[in-house]
Each structure stands twice: as structure tokens, then as C-alpha cells.
Amino acid sequence: MIAPVSTAIPHKFAIPIDVADIDFMGHVNNASYLKWVQEAVLSHWRSLAPVEAVAGHLWVALKHEITYRRPAFLDDDVIATVILEKVHGASAFYETVIRRGEEVLAEVKSRWCCIDAETKRPARLARSVIDRFFSAD
């Protein structure tokens, strides 16, 4: 089940920067970006999936590829834009772009595995659930 990127419904997620995110160099530690991506992707899932799908499925990150462009700082207003690129089997492929205004701070490609909440085994999503993440052209 593959859907083209051009029809994906983007999800904006405001990122709160905490003092604990700041490293010894005075900017956000790279590890915090992974935490942000997880929060943003799960927010995207909860915002568009039906309640019963959210209750019946969990997500596990399989892979993240991050390109860091610019540092983020404590008082920055940062937004993550999440796009579900495609779903194939039990895998979902996401792109997340983290910005401060128009400035790109990081770009993240990630692969997630959908897990059945009861059995804890990989699970395919119903087409009707996947379709909620894409608009009709």
C-alpha cells in the first residue's frame, strides 16, 4: 500500500525546548532531535488516525537518518512538520523537517513499524486508516 508524497497531509508540531535539551556548547543536543521526531510522528498519528486505530496500534522506530543544518537554542520557536511518505506492509516511512521560522534546522527520514497493541507483533493498517493521512487530488 503505497501513497505518493504529493498527497500527504502535513502535520505541524510545536516543539518545546527544555533546559535539559541544552548541551555543553549552549545549543540543543543532537539526541533531543530524536525525542522531538518521536513526539511529532506520534502526534501526527493521533491527530489523523481513528480512535480505535490509535488504541489498537503502537509504533516502534526502526531507523532515523538525520541531517543537521543549524543549531537550535533554548528560546527558539521550533516547529516540526511531519509527512507520511508511504506505508508498505507494517512499515511507515516519514519525513520530518524541523524549522525555526523559515530556517531549516534538521531534516529527518525515518521508518517505523506498526505493532498490534495486544499481540505486540507487526501489524498492517487497514487501507481506510492509511487513506486518512492523504488527501484526494
Automatic annotation (TrEMBL):
SUPFAM superfamilies, per database record: Thioesterase/thiol ester dehydrase-isomerase
Keywords: Hydrolase
Domain of life, per lineage: Bacteria
CDD domains recorded: 4HBT (cd00586)
PANTHER family reported in the protein's UniProt record: 4-HYDROXYBENZOYL-COA THIOESTERASE FAMILY MEMBER (PTHR31793), NOVEL THIOESTERASE SUPERFAMILY DOMAIN AND SAPOSIN A-TYPE DOMAIN CONTAINING PROTEIN (0610012H03RIK) (PTHR31793:SF27)
Similarity annotation: Belongs to the 4-hydroxybenzoyl-CoA thioesterase family.
Stated name of the protein: Acyl-CoA thioesterase
